[in-house]
Write a structure and sequence with these properties.
Region (Disordered): 1-20
Number of helices: 1
Helix content: under 10%
Largest sheet: 17 strands, parallel
Order of helices and strands: EEEEEEEEEEEEEEEEEH
Number of strands: 17
Protein name: Pentapeptide repeat-containing protein
Organism: Streptomyces rubradiris
Strand content: 35-45%
Distance between the termini: 25 Å
């Protein structure tokens, strides 16, 4: 059952635990020398600016206290990479491979990505702010303390994922798949539009607003097998 925001509690809203945001203070960064990324590479305290990293193989690499700005990641292989205490700004790319990657204490700002593969990934204390991400694959991923803010998500796939303390703030959520997902303290009130293509029955643990409930009513009725007629 979808929980709806209600009055009558302290603060006037249904109790929902908010996401903890990353607190990033990057040190002085050295420029990346422009070489090729390497599998299992170790990148610490570096800035990557306006680089074409398309098609490179950095599976299993670790990025710690890094800033990536304006880089191209088309078909870049980053499976099982670890991105920690880093800021990623203006990234662009199609088919970036981030399966089973770990993002912890990360800000992703103004990204333009399509078909990003993040199935089985782990996201903790992550803010995704601005930009547009199409066909994001987060199947079987684990999201804890994640905020999607002022961004557009087109057909994101959360099937089988676990979402805990996840917020959608001033965010367009179009054609989302929550099939077999597990939700706890997921705040969908800031999603406009809120379009659920699959998994309405998995939204227990989510909070929505009254207007959103009215918008979803026909789908909820169909899910329950209720015929609505005058």
């Amino acid at each position: 059952m979808v929980r709806r925001a209600t009055e009558g509690r302290p603060g006037g809203r249904t109790a929902v635990r908010g996401a903890r945001r990353p607190e990033l203070r990057l040190p002085a960064l050295a420029p990346f020398d422009g070489g090729v990324l390497e599998p299992d590479g170790d990148y610490d305290g570096l800035k990557f600016r306006d680089l074409d990293l398309a098609g490179q193989d950095a599976r299993g690499a670790r990025f710690m206290d890094c800033a990536l700005t304006g880089c191209a990641l088309d078909e870049t292989a980053l499976g099982r990479a670890r991105v920690l205490d880093s800021v990623l700004t203006g990234l662009r790319g199609v088919g970036t491979g981030l399966a089973e990657a770990t993002f912890r204490d990360v800000e992703l700002v103004d990204a333009r990505l399509g078909g990003t593969q993040m199935h089985g990934a782990v996201l903790e204390r992550v803010v995704v702010r601005g930009g547009k991400i199409d066909f994001l694959n987060l199947r079987e991923a684990r999201l804890k303390d994640v905020v999607f803010e002022s961004c557009v998500l087109v057909e994101p796939d959360f099937a089988g994922a676990r979402l805990e303390r996840v917020e959608f703030t001033d965010c367009a959520l179009k054609g989302a798949d929550f099939g077999n997902a597990t939700l706890a303290d997921v705040d969908l009130r800031g999603a406009a539009p809120l379009e659920i293509a699959r998994g309405l029955d998995r939204l227990s643990g989510a909070v929505i607003g009254t207007g959103q409930l009215l918008d979803l009513a026909p789908l909820l009725a169909a899910e329950l097998g209720i015929r609505v007629t005058d």
